[in-house]
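Quick one, tokens below:
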């Protein structure tokens, strides 16, 4: 009897691999479906290209990756498929289907460096003014927006902030950042005024007992990160901001606007709570890109005006 085609053998191993992941790895049905799709796509490529999956070379796999790029697959999709298929080949080695990890040494595609988005100052102002100042929730949300932008807080730092950690005289707060490390964040007069209004009239209306949290929900408990995300998005829509606005976007905008204004990168690093200046460096790229965009737009306007003047001069003559 003729032995089954190679891709059938690989397909049988795939089914066993997926069963193992589901039984021992605790993977969700959604993850298993994605693994089946990614590895199955690769096996179909091998079948069509006449490549033996259980004897593929690194060069052969790179050819597969090249077809993904030619099909304009998203870089994240290419990276995911590379990782998923490589995991399958490590399983094949463990099972003795191959004598070694056939894809060992295949590098993951480089992720393109994405610059953080930034909300322009007029939109920031519109966003901050969007909450209804006549309601406790509106005053609370105004204070939240002022603090997210004026202090560059992470959302986890904001919702974890207690009243006791606030010093409105100094314009600072003690928060817990990444790695559960305490750090001091500074904020300006607009945030101070918004927090004073919230603490004086809104928080007492929301409070229901001795809750230490600064920002409270309608039941008097600590406001959740999800609620803050919802509020930011709601007020952004009300303000007519076209971008998909989320709390971290305010942190990006805080850092970029500081650099736009000439702030030293070390100061911005301290304000953001970054342990390394390399992390903060991305905002200098954003600032330069914005400056280049503004310069280009200005030159286009100058050119358009010069062309209009020339046309008027021709008509006059």
């Amino acid at each position: 009897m003729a032995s089954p085609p190679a891709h059938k053998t690989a397909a049988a191993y795939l089914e066993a691999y997926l069963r193992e992941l589901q039984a021992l790895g605790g993977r969700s049905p959604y993850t298993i479906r994605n693994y089946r799709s990614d590895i199955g796509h690769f096996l179909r490529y091998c079948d069509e290209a006449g490549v033996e999956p259980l004897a593929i070379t690194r060069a052969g796999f790179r050819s597969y990756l090249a077809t993904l790029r030619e099909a304009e697959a998203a870089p994240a999709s290419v990276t995911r498929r590379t990782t998923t298929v490589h995991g399958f080949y490590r399983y094949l080695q463990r099972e003795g289907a191959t004598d070694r990890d056939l894809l060992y040494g295949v590098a993951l595609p480089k992720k393109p460096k994405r610059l953080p988005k930034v909300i322009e100052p007029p939109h920031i102002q519109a966003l901050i003014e969007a909450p209804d100042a006549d309601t406790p929730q509106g005053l609370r949300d105004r204070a939240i927006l002022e603090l997210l932008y004026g202090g560059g807080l992470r959302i986890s730092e904001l919702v974890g902030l207690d009243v006791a950690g606030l010093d409105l005289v100094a314009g600072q707060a003690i928060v817990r950042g990444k790695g559960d490390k305490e750090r001091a964040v500074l904020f300006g007069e607009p945030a101070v005024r918004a927090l004073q209004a919230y603490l004086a009239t809104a928080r007492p209306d929301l409070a229901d007992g001795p809750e230490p949290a600064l920002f409270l929900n309608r039941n008097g408990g600590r406001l959740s990160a999800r609620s803050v995300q919802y509020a930011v998005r709601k007020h952004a829509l009300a303000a007519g901001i076209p971008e998909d606005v989320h709390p971290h976007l305010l942190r990006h905008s805080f850092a970029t606007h500081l650099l736009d204004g000439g702030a030293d990168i070390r100061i911005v690093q301290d304000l953001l709570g970054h342990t390394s200046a390399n992390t903060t460096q991305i905002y200098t790229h954003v600032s330069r890109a914005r400056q280049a965009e503004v310069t280009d737009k200005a030159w286009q306007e100058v050119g358009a005006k010069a062309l209009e003047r020339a046309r008027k001069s021709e008509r006059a003559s």
